[in-house]
Write a structure and sequence with these properties.
This protein is mostly beta strands. 4% of the residues lie in helices and 22% in strands.
């Protein structure tokens, strides 16, 4: 490489008559960076058509359980995902296979045929944090719907239970103080409609009781 090929930059020398920069005072202290929502997000891949139809269409004694998922400030969580599990009328978990089995000819969920009680449902919350499922009344031997909650900001899913107010004696409910027990019992609204809100944080009278399985 010759001298002409080299790219060099001369370092300027300060001018003796340069005007000093204006003193604007000390730099402001750096504040916290904006918070970012923690994923993952579930609303685009896991929900499916008919996910809240747990009971057969022609079943007579059905109930609708609905409510909202709320954060610690009482604001709705619009992108949560809820799964519900329950025993059948005989008190045992349903053994019908494939409630998510795909029909290859139509692409629909062949296992949810409208006549079989699946014992399982999966629904997302809407923009107001609302969800709804239609199911059979839980049996006396297992008088609740098991609920699994996934939502933004939760690194681990949460487990809880939803009891109807007519539920018989239950060991878990009996072990809780009244304020905590009330967070697991749905409120009867009208006919076969019950409301069950889930609050992720709050005081004893607000935050839903969550369960740990070992």
């Amino acid at each position: 490489m010759t001298t002409a090929d080299r790219r060099t930059a001369a370092v300027p020398t300060p001018a003796t008559d340069a005007v000093p920069a204006a003193d604007t005072g000390p730099a402001p202290a750096a504040g916290p960076t904006p918070s970012q929502t923690v994923g993952p997000f579930f609303g685009h891949a896991l929900p499916f058509a008919g996910g809240g139809d747990i009971a057969p269409r022609a079943a007579a004694d059905t109930v609708t359980l609905h409510g909202r998922v709320l954060d610690g400030d009482g604001a709705p969580i619009p992108d949560a995902l809820l799964e519900f599990w329950q025993a059948g009328p005989d008190g045992r978990p349903p053994a019908a296979p494939g409630s998510m089995r795909r029909d290859h000819s139509t692409g629909r969920d062949a296992g949810r045929d409208g006549v079989t009680f699946t014992g399982w449902g999966r629904v997302p919350t809407d923009a107001d944090g609302h969800y709804a499922v239609r199911t059979l009344r839980p049996p006396a031997g297992a008088p609740y719907l098991g609920v699994l909650l996934l939502a933004r900001g939760l690194l681990h899913h949460l487990h809880t239970r939803a009891y109807l107010p007519e539920a018989p004696h239950d060991a878990l409910l009996a072990s809780l103080p009244p304020a905590r027990r009330a967070t697991l019992v749905a409120r009867h609204e009208d006919g076969g409609v019950y409301r069950f809100d889930i609050r992720i944080q709050g005081d004893d009278a607000q935050e839903t009781v969550f369960l740990e399985f070992r």
